[in-house]
Design a protein that fits this description.
Blueprint (H helix, E strand, L loop, with lengths): L1 E4 L10 E4 L2 H15 L1 H5 L4 H14 L1 E2 L1
Length: 64
Amino acid sequence: MQQFKCQDMGMKCDFVATGQTVQEVMQKAMAHAQEKHADMLKTMTTPEQRAQMQKQLQGVIKSV
């Protein structure tokens, strides 16, 4: 099982996503971010910024 904690991205948020694959967890994390952290996502205006955020997100997903 894979797990993501929003706090691992530096957010003051208790959201945790789990799933069988990294891709499943990333989808859940991005859906959460679009709903609860839309203001932060709006600051990422370039494809490079979004790619960097995706890379960081993937890096904090852990096996549990």
